[in-house]
Specification:
globular, binds protoporphyrin IX containing FE, 125 residues
């Protein structure tokens, strides 16, 4: 029962994380000033930390490790790609780099969602 609650929280946090990323990305690319507000810059870190903690706790309860569970390793790799590309999307100097990084970060997130449901790193295989 607690597991189901935690899994639901994990999925809600994933939705909040990507929604915030889309909003901030649109604001950043559109040159909006609200993206520089302190709470707008801090909130994603709080949400993403809770999101990661929920995923790690679920994996711990399942007894799964990235060393013996391929889909978990793929999710962690995808999450790292999403985070790194997300940093480039907001801090990159050139607009072209920011746009490409933003789109690739969304693709990385989409990949992790597909892995999450299929439990297959190759998604279609
Ligand atoms: C962008 C990153 C992530 C997204 C979008 C995501 C999304 C999801 C979704 C949608 C589910 C529910 C899948 C289902 O109902 O079968 C799920 C479950 C789960 N996630 Fe994540 N997740 C992410 C990152 C992580 C990370 C980093 C970890 C661990 C370190 C993790 C561990 C888990 C575990 C253990 C489950 C439960 C699997 C099960 O009960 O069968 N997730 N995730």
């Amino acid at each position: 029962m607690a597991y189901l609650w935690l899994k639901t929280a994990h999925m809600v946090l994933a939705t909040v994380s990507i929604s915030g990323f889309l909003l901030r990305g649109a604001g950043r690319l559109g040159g909006r000033s609200w993206v520089r507000r302190r709470w707008v810059r801090i909130a994603p870190h709080v949400i993403d930390t809770l999101f990661l903690v929920s995923g790690v706790t679920l994996a711990w309860i399942l007894g799964a490790s990235p060393l013996n569970t391929d889909w978990l390793a793929a999710k962690i790799a995808g999450l790292v790609a999403y985070i790194l590309l997300g940093i480039l999307a907001f801090r990159g100097r050139r607009r072209g780099l920011r746009v490409v990084s933003f789109v690739l970060a969304l693709a990385a997130f989409g990949y992790v969602v597909l892995v999450a449901f299929s439990k297959r790193p190759g998604i279609w295989i």
